[in-house]
Design goal:
Layout: E1 5-12, E2 19-26, E3 33-36, H1 37-43, E4 46-54, E5 60-73, E6 76-85, E7 92-93, H2 95-101, E8 103-106, E9 111-114, E10 137-138, E11 146-147, H3 152-166
Parallel strand pairs: 2-7, 3-6
Antiparallel strand pairs: 1-2, 1-5, 4-5, 5-6, 8-9, 10-11
């Protein structure tokens, strides 16, 4: 597919005056947003923790995580943490940012575009059988349905009955 590079606006969530536009490599094999330390300093971000990073060559290092920033690209925005690399490193946008903003890489144009299934706004996928409070029965390995509208006590009593019946 080749290298994909996009303009990305990065803003300190807690100090919106601290903002910068960078050209970032879009790397679907990477996880998160990566910025060089000099840009992190310019944005005045706060160090939050450290994580172990594994690079493509299998080398591992402990790296600091800073936050929180708003990332804007392709007309969409979201809040993220940032992994720091040494000064001069290429900014990089990883898969988590693409997924949360519901953006995809078009391999034919080497451009990042909004997901065609939801062009007007990001779509978030929630993997559950039915939406809460939908009135649909939810089965918990029980011969009787338990409705989402049950109170906590009723649900607790239903779970206790199921446990007794299964033993």
């Amino acid at each position: 597919m080749g290298k994909v590079i996009e303009k990305v606006k990065v803003t300190n969530l807690f100090d919106p005056k601290k903002s910068i536009e960078v050209e970032a490599v879009i790397d679907t094999g990477a996880t998160m947003l990566v910025l060089p330390q000099n840009i992190i300093n310019e944005l005045n971000l706060r160090k939050m923790r450290e994580v172990k990073v594994r690079y493509a060559n299998s080398k591992t290092e402990i790296k600091p995580i800073y936050g929180i920033v708003t990332v804007e690209m392709c007309g969409r925005a979201g809040e993220f943490n940032v992994l720091a690399e040494p000064e001069g490193a290429q900014p990089l946008v990883g898969q988590i940012i693409l997924e949360q903003l519901d953006l995809i890489v078009d391999p034919s144009t080497r451009k990042v575009i909004p997901n065609p299934r939801s062009p007007e706004m990001p779509m978030v996928e929630i993997l559950m059988a039915t939406p809460p409070n939908s009135g649909h029965a939810v089965r918990l390995h029980s011969p009787k349905p338990i409705r989402a509208s049950h109170t906590r006590n009723t649900l607790s009593a239903s779970l206790k009955r199921m446990m007794r019946n299964n033993t």
